[in-house]
Amino acid sequence: MRLTHAEIQREWDAALAGPRMHHGWILAGRQGLGKSEFALDAARQLVARGATAPQPDGEHPDIHLLSRPPKDDKEVRKRAEGKPFERKRNISVDQIRAMQRRLTTRPTLGRNRAIIIDPADDLEKGASNALLKSLEEPPVGTFFILVTHRLARLLPTIRSRCRVLRFNPLPDAQVEKLLKEESPSSDAAVREAAVAAAKGSPGAAIKFIEQDLAPLAAIMRDIVAQGDRAFELRGALSAAIGARPNRERVQATFDLARTILAEQMATVPSAQLMQLADAHADMVALAGQAPTYNFDPGFLAMEIGSLLASAAPHTERANV
């Protein structure tokens, strides 16, 4: 899936054509806007500058991608076999230090090297501090491209040493067009719900369909609209999420819940805004804790449902 961000491309092209290319770049915006694809294309342009050797179409020895590695040896084997695999929760300081050791050598096919960190949101604290040292004193010809879905999670000192390219949400019509191309067999009503939930992110819309989030979205909206004093809707939400959801499904559930709370803020009376804001803030906090603590999926589902219920009109916070 290739997305067009004309303004960002123009800004990047202008920088690339300038006399001094900045060594650090942050690609910021919500997930599913094509930042990873842009990072790879940008890295290829950087390593090709001034190179006399032919540039490979596949993996490039001067482009280094740091992301969350497989969780264990079993998941490593799955990756080697081309199967879906589960990742660790963070990018570790050891990964950053290994990258820094490679920076002491010369690039292979030219004079430049590109480091992509995707997503930089997942850097451990120690990894962020280690990366900062490289950003403060970058080796000649080394460029860093940090992909982030939540810019505020990066250290201010990292942000201050990079130029930021902000990827804005796309119009619904463009998301719908891309969704038809990527998922032509999906039901029209489901596509409509996916576009509404995606808020301008084609990747989020595709995930909505792949993760079968339409039933979850309907239950969540019912909870926010009417509350759930008898806990019946929370039970239905737990069943819809599943008894053993993987990390990706849990993350998609949190993203959907935050989106539904955010969209409600534009439609409710001002007296209810504080309830929604509090529920949204608590949802963000819970989503941040979920990868760190091994919460029982049933517990997480009930907590998500309770936070949604706390945003309903005339709902007491005691239910949370």
Automatic annotation (TrEMBL):
GO terms (BP aspect): DNA-templated DNA replication
Biased composition (Basic and acidic residues): 57-83
Region (Disordered): 51-83
Name of the featured protein: DNA polymerase III delta prime subunit
Domain AAA+ ATPase as annotated: residue spans: 21-170
